[in-house]
What we know:
180 residues; alpha+beta; Glutaredoxin; 2 domains; four-stranded mixed beta sheet; elongated
Amino acid sequence: xxxxxxxxxxxxxxxxxxxxxxxxxxxxxxxxxxxxxxxxxxxxxxxxxxxxxxxxxxxxxxxxxxxxxxxxxxxxxxxxxxxxxxxxxxxxxxxxxxxxxxxxxxxxxxxxxxxxxxxxxxxxxxxxxxxxxxxxxxxxxxxxxxxxxxxxxxxxxxxxxxxxxxxxxxxxxxxxxxxx
Length: 180
């Protein structure tokens, strides 16, 4: 049975569109097959809705001299399953913190911490910060007392532009530290 040329063209167009959609989604996906898109992360846990204080404890205790007892930790939370986007996200975040905050910022010492949520003892962070995916979170501490924190959900969207990514992360950390 011979198919009419119009039907053949329609089927070919449908297959090409489906393949194009799959390629586009794979190329623009923020991370790993198990990750929700960045828009789902920001809708599920908007930064503005984050509580001011979390029960999380700083990773290092008593590491700062008395004059820098104000510390901000910039966490990159990840799992054992990692993709290229995840590695880039960690690299850009670490580079930003190390470059832009090598000296204290207005009395705040800023440090980067990568935390594998799959390791024993780290699973509480997912609940503490209401994480639904791999994420960058900044929190400030006075001594061992946790203060305000915020998730930086736009890191996924800005991953393709290192300059914008670094500006966003640095700006968000400074905004958090400048707030009373």
